[in-house]
């Protein structure tokens, strides 16, 4: 983690502008072709959620601006950020879980499956026990496809507001392809639309090549 000198930062103009906004958050929603990932998960009998979470986490971390946070009224850049996601338990109880990011797909995939089961068995004292800001928030709505999402924010809390939110719905057929809608929201003092566009493009390219498993030739 390092502290950014705002006055020497190339984004200082945008930062000083948007940090004054009462609602500084914007979001971008896009649909992504996930055909190769869906087929891979079906053939390997793996969870699409965990596989897609790996891809999203990798691509979020590849864009530096998505790792910027506000902490103690300073701008900090984390070396890596981890997905904090919602787990639905019995009686529709919502709990939160954080899995450590890992470059290795199988290591990360295994960790998510264990963390999900642990979270269902262990009831935390608070809805969100982890107070560190080296996360990004994830929600999944696997029952519907959507055109946009509005996430809850407490705009009086700059630190929490600076944490990006990523939401996706169910994958669905469009002609002969599987697609999914994904919404990414971020603090405009730290992130621009171009940066979210990079994340989305990276997700598309990672899935189209399946590079994290050595390419599509190894998907079956």
Provide an overview of this structure.
The chain has 220 residues and is α+β, with helices and mostly antiparallel strands. It has helices at residues 12-18, 35-44, 48-61, 105-121, 158-161, 193-209, and strands at 2-4, 25-33, 68-71, 74-77, 82-88, 94-98, 135-141, 165-169, 172-174, 177-187. The strands form two sheets. Strands 2, 5, 6, 7, 8, 9 and 10 form a seven-stranded mixed β-sheet that branches. Strand 5 and strand 6 (94-98) form a beta hairpin. The longest helix is centred in the middle third of the chain and has 17 residues, at 105-121. It is globular.
Write the layout of secondary structure elements.
Elements: E1 2-4, H1 12-18, E2 25-33, H2 35-44, H3 48-61, E3 68-71, E4 74-77, E5 82-88, E6 94-98, H4 105-121, E7 135-141, H5 158-161, E8 165-169, E9 172-174, E10 177-187, H6 193-209
Helix pairs in contact: 3-6
In short:
Helix content is 31%, strand content 26%.
The tally of helices reads 6
Residues in β-strands, percent: 25-35%
Largest sheet entry: 7 strands, mixed
Oligomer: single chain
Backbone structural class: alpha+beta
First-last Cα distance = 39 Å
In N-to-C order, the SSE pattern is EHEHHEEEEHEHEEEH
- What radius of gyration results from the CA coordinates? 17 Å
Choose one word for the global shape: globular
Low-confidence parts: none
Mean pLDDT: 93
**Helix amount:** 25-40%
State the total count of DSSP E strands.
10
Features:
alpha+beta; seven-stranded mixed β-sheet; single chain; 6 helices
């Amino acid at each position: 983690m390092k502290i950014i000198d705002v006055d020497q930062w190339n984004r200082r103009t945008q930062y000083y502008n948007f940090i004054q906004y009462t609602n500084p958050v914007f979001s971008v929603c896009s649909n992504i072709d996930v055909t190769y990932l869906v087929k891979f998960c079906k053939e390997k009998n793996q969870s699409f959620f965990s596989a897609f979470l790996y891809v999203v986490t990798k691509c979020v971390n590849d864009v530096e601006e998505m790792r910027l946070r506000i902490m103690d009224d300073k701008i900090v850049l984390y070396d890596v950020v981890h997905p904090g996601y919602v787990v639905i338990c019995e009686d529709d109880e919502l709990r939160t879980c954080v899995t450590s990011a890992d470059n290795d797909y199988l290591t990360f995939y295994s960790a998510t499956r264990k963390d999900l089961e642990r979270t269902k068995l262990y009831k935390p004292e608070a809805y969100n026990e982890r107070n560190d800001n080296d996360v990004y928030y994830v929600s999944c709505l696997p029952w519907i496809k959507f055109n946009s999402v509005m996430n809850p924010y407490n705009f009086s809390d700059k630190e929490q507001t600076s944490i990006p939110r990523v939401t996706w719905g169910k994958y669905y057929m469009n002609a002969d392809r599987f697609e999914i809608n994904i919404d990414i929201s971020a603090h405009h003092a730290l992130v621009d639309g171009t940066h979210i566009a990079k994340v989305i493009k990276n997700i598309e390219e990672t899935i189209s090549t399946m590079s994290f498993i050595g390419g599509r030739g190894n998907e079956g």
